[in-house]
Amino acid sequence: MYQVLIPQDITQAGKDYLQQNGCEVIVLQDSSVETICREVTDCDAILARTASYPRKVFEAGRKLKVIARYGVGVDNFDIDAAAEHGVWVVNTPHANANSVAEHTVALLLACASNIVKQDRRTREVDWDSRNQTQSREVQGKTLGIVGCGHIGQMVAVKASQGLGMRVVGCDAYLDSFPDGIFRLNTVQEVFSTADYISLHIPATEETKELVNREMLGLMKPTAVLINCARGGIVDEKVLYEALRNRRILAAGIDVFEQEPPDKSNPLFQLDNVIVSPHNAALTVESMDQMGLDAARGIIEVLTGKEPTWPVNRPIIRK
How many domains, the chain? Predict the structure, then answer.
């Protein structure tokens, strides 16, 4: 029987699939690196969420063959260490795509309609606010997408076909763009062109603080930034300055440089920011699907099959 370690619990669907395929599931109550290192010793696989998986985890996992990410981003894994220790890294790139795309559109519309501010004013029976709080239509406006992979493309479809928006985008890794997204050559072009900008790129050294003072300076004063990707992509200090000084209109933020963020995060003091707790991917439907897809990736590797969604190609132990 294979042993699968789950340091942070998941919904039942993924655990059922593992057990139905001959695995013993071990769910931890503590996802610290020290605890994972102690418990992984005799495990064949890890089904991982957002905890940290540095080199020492792969050194401790003497039987470890695969680590499956319950989601897409793998910036919490030491990918090189996994490969060196013969461990496949797999993820679930399609399981939560629609959920993230819908959340992106929800933030976009919430910023455009100023819905959170209107909700607060209405609860205070500040009825005059109906004439003071501006809302804007998105039909006919330009949405700029940075990162036109699976999620970015789903956002584009919803925005263009559902909301009547014009969509432009850039992606350094796509050879051809799908219908419905007009290709721009640089991120700078997207930021200077679009009325709404949505980020859908991974957190890497290359993308760290990609959205900096220079980039925000290119945006229209009526433009809105949406980030449902990763927090480190945006320099929060300069974003705060741009929003506070009304250099840009608003922002919808699902991810932060530090997670969970500190209560004193200055972004929380602004009325032109709408925030959520990095839960764009965590709908009921996507959580079940992420668990199933991660579990399937584990079983594929453990039964000697090529995984459907590999992130690396390990040096296989003899």
Answer: 2
Instruction: Find out whether 69 and 38 touch, Cβ atoms under 8 Å.
Output: no
Q: Say which CATH number the domain at 255 has.
A: 3.40.50.720
CB-based contact 166:195 (threshold 8 Å): no
- Does residue 251 share a domain with residue 107? yes
Active site residue 62: no
> Does 278 qualify as catalytic in the annotation?
yes
Whether residue 315 is contained in a domain is answered as no
| Token digits of residue 317 | 């132990």
Task: Assess whether 129 and 23 both reside in one domain.
Answer: no
pTM across the whole model: 0.86
Per-residue pLDDT reduced to its tens digit, 53-79: 999 999 999 999 999 999 988 989 999
Tens of pLDDT along 120-150?
889 999 898 888 888 999 999 999 999 999 9
Q: CB within 8 A of 22, min separation 6: which ones?
A: 1, 2
In the set 24, 34, 137, 259, the catalytic residue is: 259
How many whole angstroms separate alpha carbon 266 and alpha carbon 258? 13
Question: Which entry of 230, 236, 296, 300 is annotated as an active-site residue?
Answer: 230
Q: Buried b vs exposed e over 280-296: b needs ≥16 C-beta within 10 Å?
A: bbbbeebbbbbbbbbbb
Task: Assess whether 210 and 288 both reside in one domain.
Answer: no
Same domain, yes or no, for 104 and 218? yes
Average pLDDT along the chain: 95
CA–CA dist 131, 59 (Å, integer)? 62
Residues of the domain holding 197: 97-275
- Annotated active-site residue 300? The verdict is no
Taken in order 95, 294, 291, 204, is the CA torsion positive or negative?
Answer: negative
